Amino acid sequence: MILYPTLEADLTCPSRYVRARLRKEPTLAPFASTVLGKEVHERIASSLRQGVVVSQADDPLRDVTGGGGRPVHRKTFQLPRRVMLSEGEKLDSLLDRAQKGLARFEADYRPGLQGEAHRVEEFLAWNLELEGELVRFMGKLDLLLSQGEDQEVWDWKTGNPKNSREQLRLYLFLVYGATGNPPRLARAVGLESGEEVVEVWSEEVIPWGYAWLQRMRKSLSAALTNPRALNPGPVCRYCPYAHACPASAAPRRYLLDTRTGEVTEVAVESLASE
Ligand code: SF4
Question: Which of 86, 115, 125, 232 could disulfide-pair with 249, CB 3.0 to 4.6 Å?
Answer without folding.
Answer: 232
